[in-house]
Amino acid sequence: MRDGIIQIGILGAGVVGGGLYQILQKNAEHIEQVAEVGIEVAAVCDIDWERPRDFSVPPDLRTTDAYEVINDPDIDIIVEAIGGSEAALDYVTAAIQAGKSVVTPNKEMIARHGEQILPLAGQHGVDVQFEGSVGGVIPVLRSLKESLASAQIDQIIGIVNGTTNYILTEMTEAGTRFAEVLAAAQREGYAEADPTADIEGTDAVNKLAILAALAFGARVPVEEIYREGISQITPTDIDYARQIGYVIKLLAIGTRDGDQLELRVHPALLPVQHPLAAVRGVFNAIFISGPECGEVMLYGRGAGALPTGTAVAGDVIDCARNIVHGSQGRTPCSCEGEANLRPMGEIESSAYVRMSVTDQPGVLGRIATLLGRESVSIESVIQKSSGNEVAEIVWVMHKGPERHLQAALRAIEKLDVVEQICSVIRVVDE
Amino acid sequence: MRDGIIQIGILGAGVVGGGLYQILQKNAEHIEQVAEVGIEVAAVCDIDWERPRDFSVPPDLRTTDAYEVINDPDIDIIVEAIGGSEAALDYVTAAIQAGKSVVTPNKEMIARHGEQILPLAGQHGVDVQFEGSVGGVIPVLRSLKESLASAQIDQIIGIVNGTTNYILTEMTEAGTRFAEVLAAAQREGYAEADPTADIEGTDAVNKLAILAALAFGARVPVEEIYREGISQITPTDIDYARQIGYVIKLLAIGTRDGDQLELRVHPALLPVQHPLAAVRGVFNAIFISGPECGEVMLYGRGAGALPTGTAVAGDVIDCARNIVHGSQGRTPCSCEGEANLRPMGEIESSAYVRMSVTDQPGVLGRIATLLGRESVSIESVIQKSSGNEVAEIVWVMHKGPERHLQAALRAIEKLDVVEQICSVIRVVDE
Predict the structure, then answer these.
(1) What ipTM does this complex have?
(2) In this structure, which CATH number among 3.40.920.10, 3.30.360.10, 2.60.120.330, 3.60.15.10 belongs to the domain A141-300?
(3) Which of A69, A132, A205, B178 could form a disulfide with A9 if both were Cys (CB 3.0 to 4.6 A apart)?
């Protein structure tokens, strides 16, 4: 503190650090009124002050030395906005050890190292807040920790990656192929130059690990979460899905069943009536359900300087209130231990399967027989001749164990009349 | 406290009090873990213990004397769940004066007497929390006070009354008339025996006053909020709206424009693509927008024992954390003063107008001339002959001052060729 004003040090003058800086400047008076204490940026650290930015930091606040900020005795709260998990972890650890509260939107670091950072914060009597790490502006983590804290959560389904939701929305609404939409998204800045973490689901996996820890009170090793990206999704599948009343979304799904958790990130067919089906473009949403709370959905921008900056500023205000009231550690980590994860093969799921086959009598029957042999039950089937003696068959299977379907598909693939199993996409129906 | 366990007194063993009681029993272990303190019900007060209930309270916890609960020195938190604004206000005032934190889902009391209760809580160093008063389980108030606390909010649009949303959804999906759906809703328990407060918008007005106070930091006298109910809405209007891409919803709208606020509850045409348009049945949702947060929507069950009980239990946990950490008053009332309300006539709005006219040439032109004379600009018009020399004309007007439209309609009503102005429903288009 300096003159009764809370002092903030921001590490990283990038998108989110910049968003936070602008909000703290522009809304300073409003923030002082709601927080009942002034909040001031004392220092901003970045390794490159030559880079063009759409906001400017006064030269006397700039530094390139993170430890100068972390060790400044006047600074109360460190905002880590550099991203990545290595240097960020060192800085956050040092800040906690220096007795500062920490705010970070860094999903990778929290997902991977939360189990180390959060107890350390407890030991040092400081807060670590990370609302911006999942769903940008969406107030989902604080809602799980506070408003819904009493409730048993049975399931969380999230659209938590804006890049993939933008791509799938464009593919759905314009009928464009994945590669073309991705290239356009990269030109427009909706996708990174290296989009792997987004399109292959790694980003969503980190967010699901954080959501699951808060919703189910269990630590989840990110490597153990099942993951499938969207690069194999085609306009053909999107169109078939539409015909049978579904949209295709990349979902992060966490389900509690007894003492086991099912955690998975994959594309899925979602009924058009589902509240998540209407989440378009770069928007994110998290759907939460349980026996007491019923169905709750929280929706908003999952990225961007000001939306994520708003989430980070909310955390800063929370930490500031705790400093003023001496109540740091008021909402600590409440994980009880490691999650007991159900293997993917044991998960019960419905599925959509598209295959191309030789267009001749008896083929559908032969395939259906193999499905039946593995106890895979068929909900609906469409067969369409696509010319050249080739037909396309689209199946929707009833809910059943994943391993039964996989066994049936291995057998079906070997049939001489089956040219290719083109797509297997799970269906989320409840 | 008793033996280090937070003691709760519940006033009112009705729907919400019962929901809370059940959650605190069933999830006691989970709640103790997340709150880091045990939470126990010490007493439940109700005037009628003979009434049949789907939960049971042990006889030694039952009382009929509210002040016995309020004045019990072991009790830390009073939950007021009796409803109404008179006795409830007395009890809450007494509880605050006795140094207890208070949790209440009572929208009427908070909307009418918040400006008296909240400062009193501040003077006595206790909390008053009321998340359950708006949107049931939806974590909207805490999100406004905490996660979105830094952001400037420009607009809040809420579907905050489940009864009317259920009725409008049924009218839309089954084409049934208002009176029939209301009667069915009363039989099924979705509408009260006296549904006036719901269908005439009074309930929504109370909730809007609370939302506006938190979003805009200004106290709002509920009597000054413009209010219109849904009893005049017909399947005919719902059907015309659908044809031009809209659904009809009862909306609670709060808009900030400079230093003025526009606050109103009325049915409105909402574009089918709007996230609120998909909110069906008894569900509620609140759509929040501003320059930093962008568009945020929070969705869930707006009523019911367990959903509202979850919100109340979240508040109880919040109060308990503050008691344990000595941080009561951490998120106090932050209203700066009375709202500066814009008169309804000055509000700019689009409108849908349906009228029946004599089916003869020149009528549409005469009406359009009168609209033009009052500077009301037409976006679209549909004219349909309905037989018997009567035609129906449906207009959608461009956005303009409310008083221009009203002046034009007064003039149009006097035309001999106009049989009736059947409906005037505002359009919410942004």
Answers:
(1) 0.96
(2) 3.30.360.10
(3) A69
